[in-house]
Design brief:
This protein has a two-stranded antiparallel ribbon. It has one domain: Arp2/3 complex 21 kDa subunit ARPC3, CATH 1.10.1760. Helix content is 74%, strand content 3%. With 211 residues, it is mainly alpha-helical. β1 and β2 form a beta hairpin. α3 crosses α5, α3 packs across α6 and α4 runs antiparallel to α5.
Length: 211
């Protein structure tokens, strides 16, 4: 889902860069107010883990592949604003040093794969936890939010490509969503497995899990 440079027209990548920058500024302010001291090293650990995990691809239908995005996982452990900063840092390093995603398209990639997962995914996760109590709510929220945000990220990418005139929406939307519906299942399974393990060994790392 990483967009390289040249796939988005000027108005689109500029708009996405501005939007991502604005959200990043809000995230910095909110995280600085709400971040606990013990979460600071956790941010570094999560950034390293997500960066490494995104290097590992799993095969999907039709010769395509997917990898863990990790936005929902980071948001559950760190909160949405600190998690957003972690994801932004990961995508900046990928773009600057590994040419994984374009520099001009960085805002779009941050929004599609980072902000939708951390902020949007966390809201969905919390909503599901209100409906389902206990560990079942945590796991159901994590899995559903992980799958949903992957699909929503692919939809956002499709619309950006269509608005840019790169590919017609009727072609790119079904193509992107069909693949990412499957990739999202992998994201959900991996996220739930990791959260299950954490609940068993360090449930105090998940806010509200000890209630």
């Amino acid at each position: 889902m990483h967009l390289p440079d040249g796939f988005l027209d000027t108005k689109t990548w500029v708009a996405m860069d501005v939007a991502a920058t604005a959200v990043a500024a809000v995230a910095v302010r909110r995280a600085s107010k709400n971040l606990e001291e013990k979460q600071v090293p956790m941010m570094g650990i999560m950034a390293a883990f997500i960066f490494a995990a995104q290097m590992l691809n799993f095969p999907v239908l039709g010769g395509t592949s997917g990898h863990l995005l990790g936005g929902v996982l980071a948001a559950i452990l760190l909160g949405p604003w600190a998690a957003a900063l972690v994801m932004i840092a990961v995508f900046i390093v990928q773009a600057l040093f590994f040419q994984d995603g374009g520099l001009l398209a960085l805002g779009a990639n941050v929004f599609n794969m980072g902000l939708i997962g951390t902020i949007g995914g966390y809201c969905l996760y919390r909503f599901i936890r209100l409906l389902v109590r206990g560990d079942k709510g945590i796991l159901a929220g994590a899995g559903i939010a992980a799958w949903t945000t992957v699909v929503l990220g692919s939809v956002a990418t499709a619309f950006e490509l269509a608005v840019s005139g790169t590919t017609p929406l009727k072609v790119v939307l079904p193509a992107m969503t069909a693949v990412h519906v499957v990739i999202g299942l992998g994201e959900a399974v991996i996220t739930v497995m990791i959260i299950t393990f954490i609940l068993r060994v360090r449930r105090d790392l998940i806010p509200g899990a000890e209630e």
